[in-house]
Write a structure and sequence with these properties.
Strand order of the largest sheet: 1-2
Strand content: under 5%
Number of helices: 19
CATH superfamily: MFS general substrate transporter like domains
Low-confidence stretches: 1-20
Helix content: over 70%
Number of domains: 1
Order of helices and strands: HHHHHHHEEHHHHHEEHHHHEEHHH
Number of strands: 6
Structural class: mainly alpha
Radius of gyration: 22 Å
Shape: globular
């Protein structure tokens, strides 16, 4: 029989204490990952609302692209400031701030009276997304035992893809209730407005549940609250854990570090430290393959090759389901075969899938409302789109958020994660803003460019990225 190893805190565990402790770790990580769910939901919900927004506010494709993409600029701002806020006020308070912003943005977006108002509320939602995109991986990496960290950190991406899928399911269901079109009335509001309002519910749930998990022991130690940090470790890892040993590891890391600042990231041959460039490269390549075109624009993408709105929303839902399947596969293998092998598998699969999509879209014929694609090429395009999403989900979708949470030394971790995440959102904005114009110019060439970026992402992994599988978080260097 064992007792807690924290002086003054004694408990007698039952034979089931180990599994119960693991269950607690899973619960805590899952709660933190609700921010990822809202990240996915809020990012992708616009996909089903695009047509309704265009009709309601009478805006062009270019203006629509700006409304969709402007949230991503807010995300870059949120990610850039998340690190400093987390170090100053704690991880949980940043989660609470993100939850509040998600809730207010959902209500404001759904009830906007002008397109500029919608843009403002989407920027606010984007800030919340930026906060959630950094604080979730940071918190999970800091509370997770090393043996489970890869799988627990994968909760962030799993939550993101569940949020994306939930948004597509809600969009489809609301559209069906409004006669299959997002611009139709559904009670006192139009369908697209209900789509945006629905995010209020998980935002409130996020706030409530994050009030029931402990603060990060890394943060608590860094602000001198060692006894609270011990209780946090005991809460998460259970009475049979080596609490004092865990706290000693964290104290050693904190003692040899200082408050991370942006200037600490400089010092390499190209300005920034090599490890920071590696993080930025991972963040940027994750977006340059065009993954969010599928989640932000798939409704109008499939309509652009002759598929009706209701069917296009159903296709969006099916790709989201594939996204979940790929993410679950990644979670099973990321701690077994490592980060780099999965990244290379994903880069190769995405390159082939995107090249096939580019070939299929080259057969598009017609103009205006009279657009079609031959049946054979249409089938190839659908299969290629689903394969692309699967290869992304099984690799880069998970790997980025796992690696940015564990690849940086403690002394620069939060600052480096903020910079890498901000670059991720800037790249996301660039792809999202440019896609409507690029697709109008040449949809096939656009996908060929994305395929080229997938090839380059594989080269980057081989040349620059260092494996982090199995390494202690405190030993990152």
């Amino acid at each position: 029989m064992t007792t807690s190893r924290v002086p003054g805190i004694t408990s007698t565990p039952s034979p089931a204490d180990g599994p119960r402790s693991l269950g607690r770790v899973i619960f805590v990580a899952a709660v933190a990952a609700i921010g990822g769910f809202l990240f996915g939901y809020d990012s992708a919900v616009i996909n089903g609302a695009v047509i309704g927004i265009q009709h309601h506010f009478h805006v062009s494709s270019g203006e629509t692209g700006t409304v969709v993409a402007v949230a991503l600029l807010g995300s870059a701002v949120g990610a850039a400031f998340a690190g400093r806020l987390a170090d100053t006020f704690g991880r949980l308070r940043v989660m609470h701030l993100a939850a509040a912003l998600f809730a207010v943005s959902a209500v404001g977006s759904g009830l906007s009276g002008a397109v500029w108002q919608l843009g403002v509320w989407r920027v606010m939602g984007g800030i919340a997304i930026g906060l959630a995109s950094l604080i979730g991986p940071t918190y999970i990496a800091e509370i997770a035992p090393a043996a489970y960290r890869g799988r627990l950190a994968s909760f962030q991406q799993a939550a993101i893809v569940l949020g994306i899928t939930a948004s597509q399911l809600v969009n489809w269901a609301i559209a069906q209730g409004a006669g299959g079109r997002s611009e139709n009335d559904l009670g006192p509001l139009q369908a697209w407005q209900w789509m945006l309002l629905a995010a209020f519910v998980p935002a409130v749930l996020y706030f409530v549940l994050t009030s029931r998990i402990p603060e990060s022991p890394h943060y608590l130690v860094s602000v001198g609250k060692t006894e609270e940090a011990k209780r946090a470790v005991l809460d998460v890892e259970g009475a049979d854990s080596d609490v004092n040993g865990r706290i000693t590891e964290i104290e050693n890391a904190v003692r040899t570090a200082h408050k991370p600042r942006i200037r600490d990231l400089f010092g390499g041959g190209f300005g920034l430290l090599p490890i920071v460039w590696a993080g930025i490269g991972l963040a940027v390549f994750q977006q340059l393959v065009g993954i969010n075109v599928i989640f932000y624009y798939s409704s109008i993408l499939w309509q652009s090759v002759g598929i009706d709105q209701s069917s296009s929303l159903l296709i969006s839902l099916s790709t989201s389901v594939v996204n979940i399947i790929g993410t679950l596969v990644a979670m099973m293998f990321i701690d077994r075969i490592g980060r780099k092998p999965l990244a290379l598998i994903g880069s190769s699969g995405m390159a082939v899938s995107l090249a096939l999509a580019a070939w299929a879209f080259s057969s598009k014929t017609g103009t205006g409302d009279d657009i079609s694609i031959p049946h054979g090429q249409g089938v190839v395009a659908l299969v290629a789109a689903h394969a692309f999403v699967f290869f992304f989900a099984v690799s880069w979708g998970v790997i980025l958020w796992v690696m940015v949470g564990e690849m940086f030394p403690f002394r620069i971790r939060i600052a480096a994660m903020s910079v890498a995440t901000a670059f991720n959102w800037i790249a996301n904005w660039a792809v999202t803003e440019s896609f409507p114009s690029m697709a109008k110019w040449d949809l096939s060439a656009t996908y060929a460019i994305y395929a080229g970026c997938a090839v380059l992402s594989g080269v980057f992994v081989v040349k620059v990225v260092t494996e982090t599988k199995g390494k202690s978080l405190e030993s990152a260097d």
